[in-house]
Amino acid sequence: SVSTRRLSHLRSLPIDASLSQASPLPPAAREEGEVAEALRYTSRRPWKPTCLYYTQGKCTMMDDALHLEKFNHNLSMDLPVSASAADKVKPQKLDYFLVLDLEGKVEILEFPVVMIDAHSMEFIDSFHRFVRPTAMSEQRIKEYIEGKYGKFGVDRVWHDTAIPFGEVLQEFEDWIGGHKLWKQKQGESLNSSAFVTCGNWDLKTKVPEQCKVSKIKLPSYFMEWINLKDIYLNFYNRRVSELD
After folding, report:
1. Domain 10-32+83-236 is of which CATH architecture?
2. Of 122, 103, 125, which Cα lies nearest the Cα of 180?
3. CB-based contacts of 205: which residues, under 8 Å, 6+ apart?
4. Each residue of 179-217: pLDDT tens digit?
5. Which GO terms describe its molecular function (predicted)?
6. CA gap 118, 109 in Å, rounded
7. DSSP type of residue 244
8. Neighbouring residues of 67: CB distance < 8 A, sequence distance ≥ 6
């Protein structure tokens, strides 16, 4: 397994080798640029866009048949796991992975987490909140959001639903508490679960920075995580700058 890396008071967690039981590629194969077959997610259902108001817990059109026909309100539809892929999953000591991928360079604009069963790789639940910056003027926020989301038509949803980072954390703690992944009385560490990130930036850099800006004490459950880039390096013996 990947050795634990200590990053000052923060650290990335080890994970049992890889999600696939396939052996690492031999050196010759790696030199020729061949890659092992990864888990493949397939869906036979027609794709439709997700209702972003629904992901924020603020959709008011759940009784509107046309709205339900146009927008997806069942996130598990987009993340099915094929039987062949599930057979390749190695046993894990953890029960759940909390896949985190923050958005926002100046301040956090989105806080999305997907909860995955570590044994079956099945989608369990998700938490997604748009985050309103606390140290930026309203004019700067408007320009920032227009540049970030305007071309996707998401800026209206952001302005309608974004809440301060402190409120996001309160709702997130209610969410992980509801799944019995965390209890404040147990020292604030996650229970049988771990964050998964693509790199250390999200939890080593951005969350501590945002907590400082928002004048919030950094929750201790953010102090350890699994870095997919470390897993990739350990398994394939080569570094990767991005993971698709």
Report:
1. 2-Layer Sandwich (3.30)
2. 125
3. none
4. 999 987 766 789 999 999 999 999 999 999 999 999 999
5. 3'-5'-RNA exonuclease activity; nucleic acid binding
6. 28
7. -
8. 51, 61
